[in-house]
Amino acid sequence: MGFEAEDHYARLAATYNGNWSHSPDYVAWMSGQVCDRLQIRPGDRVVDVGAGTGLFLSMLGGAVTADNPVVCVDPSRPMLDQLPDDPRLAPLQATAEQVASREVRLPYEQIDAVLIKEAIHHVADVPATVRGLADLLAPGGRFLVVTLPPLLEYPLFEAALERFAKRQPEPEGIAEDMADAGLRTDLSYAEFPVRVEREHYLGLVGRQWMSVLSTFSESEIADGLEEIRRRHPEDVLEFTDRFALVFGTKPGG
Ligand SMILES: C[S@@+](CC[C@H](N)C(=O)[O-])C[C@H]1O[C@@H](n2cnc3c(N)ncnc32)[C@H](O)[C@@H]1O
Fold it and tell me: Is 117 in the pocket of ligand 1 (CB under 6 A)?
């Protein structure tokens, strides 16, 4: 199955979780943001679209059992292969578009909660995909898209920040797509203060850990690393990680 950034995730899969191992606080914080909004209840049918390695699924706690596993949708087999071996997680190799269009069927006729975390930027037709997934929601169902806004405050090199901004969908547009699909919609932002050793961060950039970085050549990355070193002589980098949380609920229920 070919999809945008396929090679990027195949290369990254084995080290993906390690990128965050320095920051268990961040993983717990993000899991809390998701949990607070999706309000998963026992028996809920949950789908995580672009689930990747399932790093943020620890938040589901006792609400999910092997009888109602979270369907972890992702087109990348190497990423899905990193999912913990847990009967409460059901991997499904597919794109968001394929699930939204019913080309690939979920094990549930209707769902109570759908999460797309840091994967919507890989979706080609966002309005149609949001609508297709919203149509799968049962009355009272919740839909959460967690995404970086186009303008980042990361200490990256300028060309990477610019290219990222061009490729990233606007959160307001995603909120409109949800509203057009009949959901009550709320857009909010959440910020996490990051402190990271410069050398660790340069290592991440060198390994092209963000998919936008995989669009630069080796020599462009080398130049980019030089630019970051010049601009940030400090040993510890401090910046704000800011996320848009686009939340929709289906009336009824
Ligand atoms: C940045 S990772 C996010 C993974 C996980 N949600 C997380 O937050 O850790 C993006 C994921 O989106 C997946 N992806 C790429 N194209 C996709 C598509 N068209 N539909 C659904 N997922 C896609 C990638 O394979 C990758 O696992």
Answer: yes
**Probe target for ligand 1 pocket from 118, 144, 145, with the most ligand atoms within 8 Å of CB:** 118
Instruction: Specify the long-range contacts of residues 224-232, CB closer than 8 Å, at least 24 apart.
Output: 224/156, 224/157, 224/159, 224/160, 225/157, 227/157, 227/158, 228/155, 228/156, 228/157, 228/201, 228/202, 229/202, 231/155, 232/155, 232/198
- 50: CA distance to ligand 1 center in Å? 4
Mean pLDDT rounded to a whole number for the chain: 94
Which is higher by pLDDT, 210 or 3? Answer: 210
In this model, does residue 166 exceed pLDDT 90? yes
When comparing pLDDT for 226 and 21, which is higher?
A: 226
pLDDT at 1: 57
Residue 8, SS3?
helix
Whole-model pTM?
0.96
Distance CA 56, CA 96 (A): 18
